[in-house]
Design a protein that fits this description.
heterodimer; A: 96 residues; 3 helices; B: Rossmann fold; Rossmann fold; 10-stranded mixed beta sheet; 9-stranded mixed beta sheet; 17 helices; 39% helix; rod-shaped
Chain lengths: 96, 576
Amino acid sequence: MEEETWELRLYVAGQTPKSVMALANLKKYCEQFLKGRYQLEVIDLLQNPQLAEGDQILAIPTLVRKVPEPIRKIIGDLSNQERVLVGLDIRPLENK
Amino acid sequence: MQTNHPPIPIPLRKTPTGIEGLDEITDGGLPQGRPTLVCGSAGCGKTLLAIEFLVRGIQQYDEPGVLMAFEETAEELSANVTSLGFDLPALQKAGKLRLDHVHVDRSEIEETGEYDLEGLFIRLGHAIDSIGARRVVLDTVEALFSGFPNQAVLRSEIRRLFRWLKDKGVTAVITAERGEGSLTRQGLEEYVSDCVILLDNRIQDQITTRRLRIVKYRGSTHGTNEYPYLIGEEGLSVLPVTSLKLGHDVSDRIVSSGIPALDGMFGLKGFYEGSSILIGGTAGTAKTTLAAAFAREVCLNKGRCLFFAFEESPRQLLRNMRSVGIDLEPCLEKDLLRIEASRPTLNGLERHLVTLHQLVRDFKPQAVVIDPISNLVSVGNLQEVRSMLTRLIDFLKVNGITALFTALINPRTGQVEMIEDAVSSLMDTWIMLRDLEGIGERNRGMSILKSRGMSHSNQVREFIVTGNGIELLDVIIGPTGIVTGSARLAQRLQEQAQADAHQHELDRKDRELERKRRVLEATIANLRTEFESVEDELRRINQEEQTRQPTLPEGKKTLPSGPASGAGKTTRRKGR
């Protein structure tokens, strides 16, 4: 479980403040909690609108956790750290 | 300096839905390039209406469409409408239709800050652009409300969505669930204000009727009534709206009633083609027989006739009519007659109406017989029957079809069961059959209550149903008016007796005259004989006179001539 690489996908639509904010927040959390064991893919739907259907994206920005299963979705600019961690099911490292 | 030209008003453009009847009510279709809200409770056919809008748009108007489904998956939707002959996968393959299932699940979504629904816009925009769609359906946008907890964001986004759809210039249909006390559960009508269509599903006396109403249609006239609609084998059909105006053509041609004597009661020897005829009568007054006679007449003239029997099965009808000399079998064999028999309660009124419409369209009859219309009252309430009949008659008139209805009359009130006033104004010709009851027997009488556009007999004619059909008897007037049945026989006997007596009297007078003549002749003969004998006598005297004459001159030579003539006179006197 610890060894598993996390696959995260962030859907944005252009460089909107919310998108920029979400990306910044996400990078911060990943570095803090998942350092070295995550892959982050940012998809700009303005460039690839056809990708929106696959992950059932409605809200922007949306963060999708593909791996580990099950798939989870988190919407919003990820500014609420607690909810992001709950949503992604990340246990803060401090607890160890 | 520029002159200010007043802007030329552009009439509201409309996108025809292709749904039967709906385009008539909306006066051409849904507002083009604007969203339309279709709301209704569960099971109303909202989704169906929306899908039909898309499919007809593709098939009839070559306008590609996008269906964004929030509740059902593409496969489910496809399967649901296959029974209606809509092949969604084929349309998708042809690049005319795009189905996008939007899955919203609260449990999968965690809110962590600000967001918007740009993803939805992008998806929709992509779908529209990829096939050049002109029509868009959002099937139950309200599903979003269960998925996103932030109502404020959602509402502003939905408002933005509708605005965005308008800007895109696509004609959109948005379905929504009916709410308590409001049109939609989430108050979507606040956002979509161009056109709102309400679907309703009502159960009355265990019979469901679906109704459609246009709540509003900005910038256009529209039918304001509730229109019944049906989900049939070919999709939705909103029921007929031909009654919006009275502008149908009329015919001057005459069709026979099938009974020559009855034709004779009309000034023009029959009914006008395309008119509506009501045969009203109490039970057992041979309404069906009259109707069948008419049907056969139509068929004999190479016309097609559609016979709706709500009381008898086709076989029973054939048998019964054969017994009175009206053989409908050959008409059936030549496919000139079609008998549709069903119990009125089998379907709701509207279903009956649609069945009729479909049959009329397929069979193209010149005449339609409905036997009887009063039975339909058992299906709906008075109001509904009225409106159904109005539409039915209008429909038939517009198509120039002669319609003959029978109606049962309540013997107690003497009125057609409840529908009299509603129906009478719709009917051009009204034939009344009645029981003429008296001195222990019933006889059937027929009279014409009205016949628009031609003169008609005012008599109540007695008729009998014989093995050769219906025969009208001559009118016999007795001391107390028209006499029928055995009174008619009695009257006839009495008249016969009178005639006989009269004849006797005449004969007697003749004989008397003869006798008188003979007496006179005898007298004349007598007189003549007498005369002859006198004549003989005279002749004899004359001769004597002449024989005596030669002797006279000798004697007279001495005498003057005078006494000679005097002597002659004396002789004549003496002869007498």
